[in-house]
Amino acid sequence: MSAAAVTSGGGVAAGGLVAVLQSAGAAGLSASASAVVASVGGGVGAAVGWLAGKTRKQKEENKNGNKDE
After folding, report:
1. Rg of the Cα atoms in the chain
2. Where are the domains of the chain?
3. Are 12 and 4 in contact (CB under 8 A)?
4. Is the pLDDT of residue 1 over 90?
5. Sign of the alpha-carbon torsion through 39, 2, 20, 48
6. How many CB atoms lie within 10 A of CB 44?
7. Which pTM was predicted?
8. Nearest C-alpha neighbor of 12 from the set 28, 37, 23
């Protein structure tokens, strides 16, 4: 059971994101839809990785007192 279903007492709100994704999963996705989902997921993953790296670098610079300047 999804986390959304558990928090709402076992049901999922009609028209909500979880319900839409469950419907898409039950119906199956075409090859082109799968490619779009994979592309979007890859882009989101790349953005999260870039932000995490930038944040980590900034924290290290703050910790080291910006000695490179």
Report:
1. 20
2. 3-64
3. yes
4. no
5. negative
6. 10
7. 0.46
8. 23
